[in-house]
Amino acid sequence: MTCLAAIAAALGPGEQHYLSQARQMQALSFAAHIPLVCFGIAFPALLLYVESLYLRTGDELYRTLARRWSRIMAALFATGVVTGTILSFELGLLWPNFTGTFGGVFGLGFAIEGFSFFMEAIFIGIYLYGWNRLSPRAHFASGIPIAIAGFTGSLTVISVNGWMNHPTHFRYSNGRVVDAEPFGALFGNSYFWHELVHMYLAGYMVTGFVLAGAYAFGRLRGHWGRYERTALAIPLAVATLAAVAQPFIGDWAGREVAATQPTKLAAFEGLGKTTKGAPVHVLGWYTDGHVEYGIPLPRLLSLLAFHRVDATVQGLDAVAPDDRPPVNVVRYAFQTMVGSGTALALLSVVYLLARFRRKRLPESSWFYRAVAVAGPVAVVALLAGWVTTEVGRQPWVVYRVMRTSEAVTGASGIPVGYATLALVYLALAAGVAWVLLRLSRTPV
Amino acid sequence: MHLYDLPLWFALVGLALYTVLGGADFGAGFWQLVAGKGKQADEIRDEAHHAMAPVWEANHVWLIFIITVVWTAYPAAFGSIASTLSVPLFIAAIGIVMRGGAYALRAGTRTAAEQRRVDTVFAVSSVLTPFALGTVVGALATERVHIGNPGGSLWTSWLNPTSAVIGVLAVASGAYTSAVFLCGDAERHGEHALADRFRTRALGAGLAAGAVAIAGLVVLHFDGERIFRRLTGGAGLPGLIVSVVAGVGTLALVWRRRYEPARYAAALAVAATIAGWALAQNPVFLDGLTIRQAAAGHDTLVAVVVSTLAGAVLLFPALTLLFRLTLGGELRDTEGVPEGPGRYRGRALGSGRLDARLAVAFLLGGIGFLTIAEAGWAHGIGVACFFGFILSGYQAALPTDVLDGGE
After folding, report:
1. What separation in angstroms does the CA of B257 have from each of A280, B191, B253, B262?
2. Is residue A71 domain-resident?
3. Which of A177, A374, B155, B396 is most buried, judging by how many CB atoms fall within 10 Å of its CB?
4. Domains of chain A: total
5. What is the pLDDT of residue B406?
6. Which residues span the domain enclosing A134?
7. Shortest CA gap B12–chain A (Å)
8. Contact across the interface for A100 and B293, Cβ inside 8 Å
9. Is residue A308 part of a domain?
10. How far is the CA of B181 from the CAs of A381, B34, B126, B248, in angstroms?
11. In this structure, is residue A298 part of a structural domain?
């Protein structure tokens, strides 16, 4: 045991003046990666659907569409490979004490994710380069593991996030983990399922609205044949259905947060004091323990969180000021997510009703303007959602066990690394934008 | 062998595969960098790109595998390594981003000039990354990292003679194995002139890698006393011998244009070097920290071993398929024979469309079970209902004019 104590003492928190830069650098890396994850979740399934239409009808249009989409998927996947690699490096480079202390509990999630990543990478190689030589059925079959691995990969990574928010299945004494049970910690965690389902639907919303948005933009500029209509309708149909379901999943997630992380919920709503019959405020600004200039909706928070209008909701004052997240960041991220999600759900209801009554795509240009905007809005909602849950967990990296400031590296040079990464990602974003534009103008 | 050693052996197998396969991909980038200009150079760059394009992502994942196994099974050691060697690891990470970005960009290039520019980014990062990762190995081999955050100098831990020579060795051996593999690939596609050009490169790179390896032993003699002793006379000696024999054997095979066996001999040479290092370094992980001390708890180690073995059952058949298709030329960009539509039933879509009413029923069920009910089991049913809503509603949500072929 003396040896373990010595290890814990030696690895302890480093001297770090740039904690907030380290956090921003991590946030930048996540923000770059998470939209690409959405494409990893949903794009293979959409592609397989289009390819199955080709297999059933023999109509070359579907094959052309699938081939062109597969090139986009390849470019986005390659970008996701490297931005994901950056994240796994950063878990060590920026937060060595987090990985060094808890790697034995949560690391398994990433180790299993590695195998999903392998399957994705292997079969994307076969799928992408096998269009000409493989038989149509073999080619279709080679896409199936990609779709499965896109799901299992996000499942294991989200299981780690679920554990960070609701850490169980280990004991922590003298700065060391003992009695870790990794399988239980990752998959026996009640806090993980709502995150998974919420993110999974978000994946379909982002992919669907971004793709449909691109073709809607094309329609506004006059590109509107059967090919474009098909390419717009297939992602739009799935995105609108997911967008209708998402508010209900989000409401469930909110109730889980209320039960397990009451301080985070209080930050969502800017609830300074523990309140019986707590209201929801729309907009406004949190200051001195209450929301100013907001539009109050009385008792709604109690109703949403606990299904009773007079339920008591724990406020931020239940914990010491040092243990509270930055309320306005969390609150505005939350409001952005809910607002964008609601707008997308409304657009979706409009589309689905129109489809139900008229059986065809709407004809109004306003509809296509809205769909074109829905793509970026879905990405904003996604990022806002992750800010909500990640900043909402602060100041903890492992909720109520390890502070982010205890996890950070003691190595110097974070500002240099941050600046370098920002420049490289800027170049990468420009490159990806360029290649997507090029691909959109390249016939098969 | 103990349980606490086992995950490290898995990681070392991963490292050997990464060095052979990922190293060859880096090497392909190296040959792009030094290809020069003109038609022949473009051919070299193209062949290097095509040989690597379907496999580089899968080969890259070995690095992720190594990292995740080490941080799960040896968290304290990983934390110290990541913190102390943050500079070379960050350089490697940036190199990896540039490389993946360049790969993504190449799909959009139209002219040879654009392609050259993108290939140059790819090539520079293909030299930078293995060099940086090689310096990390040098730091570990000479025990310049001890436990701490950071545990050791941020600079001299990886800017030292051993790190430098292992960094160069990583680049050189990648170039060597890559040239050997490319000889075989070019030969398989009947491009004998191109194969001969790679043969010259393989012979040159092989001699260079051998020279760097010998220089490395000299440097280790002065800079890493323990590892040198155990590599030249102790537990690591068999690895060293196999690596020398296989390395020289590869050269002989390439000389005689027997590229297929050369492929495996080159891989063996690289793998033996890593095994030799591991055996010589054992049982030390970091300065003052043995593998046993670094290991996580019993349950974690069992979980890693079980998951890795289960994953391997899926992984190796898939990898075999990928490499068989690649080597068989099934994944080349060349036009094949497109299938005629006669094989299809030409079935009209839109028949058998599920009723939108089913979707509405699922939606209402989902709201009832997930939003109104409070029990955990009800939430499970509720989530299933929402997925039922999306699946059953999908056909109904597609406009009829899309699937029926328009007006």
Report:
1. 76, 13, 6, 9
2. yes
3. A374
4. 1
5. 43
6. 18-274+314-394+418-440
7. 15
8. no
9. no
10. 47, 17, 17, 16
11. no
